Amino acid sequence: MALWTGRWFTGFFTALIIIVTFLPVLLERRFRIHIPPELQLLAIGFVFASLFLGEVRDYYTRFWWWDIALHTSSGVLLGILGFLLVHIMNETERIEVHMKPGFVAFFAFLFALGVGALWEIFEFTMDTLFGMNMQKPMLGDPSGLTDTMWDLIVDALGALAISLLGWHYLRNPQQASFLERWIGTFVERNPRFFRK
């Protein structure tokens, strides 16, 4: 309907939401990786909240805390992704790497923070080259620097929380929090990555 009525921005983001929503299913089929339903729902909820509610429904300007909440949750999601990536490398027999739990957690933290920094570079590039308003400058700071720094800070806090939970999981696999249960489900459903 958005494309039919000429609302190109809304149509583009709606199409992007639909495509991203199907990514977990496509990854599962293409690479035979089972992604726990809880993680799929979190990712889909994040995409919906950031693209549809944030950009299309303008929640970024309607609610001052919307960008902060989404960057915190992106730090959490990217921390989980980084943790699972290095955990797979650490456990698979095809790669001769044996990292300590502290390094696995540190990598997950840096992975999430690195992707968050790349996103901020993307926002800056889009604003500079195409005149978009992705950095959402705050009052008293038209440059967007304050927004960028707060985005990176809350990315780091979300990533730190997941890194600490992942480190705790590797040190005490018998005690399960929600993250440990998700990681355990991922390991159980994808045994080919974790054969020693």
Automatic annotation (TrEMBL):
<feature type="transmembrane region" description="Helical">
    <location>
        <begin position="39"/>
        <end position="56"/>
    </location>
</feature>
<feature type="transmembrane region" description="Helical">
    <location>
        <begin position="152"/>
        <end position="170"/>
    </location>
</feature>
<feature type="transmembrane region" description="Helical">
    <location>
        <begin position="68"/>
        <end position="90"/>
    </location>
</feature>
<dbReference type="InterPro" id="IPR014509">
    <property type="entry name" value="YjdF-like"/>
</dbReference>
<protein>
    <recommendedName>
        <fullName>DUF2238 domain-containing protein</fullName>
    </recommendedName>
</protein>
<feature type="transmembrane region" description="Helical">
    <location>
        <begin position="102"/>
        <end position="122"/>
    </location>
</feature>
<feature type="transmembrane region" description="Helical">
    <location>
        <begin position="6"/>
        <end position="27"/>
    </location>
</feature>
<dbReference type="Pfam" id="PF09997">
    <property type="entry name" value="DUF2238"/>
</dbReference>
<keyword id="KW-1133">Transmembrane helix</keyword>
<keyword id="KW-0812">Transmembrane</keyword>
<keyword id="KW-0472">Membrane</keyword>
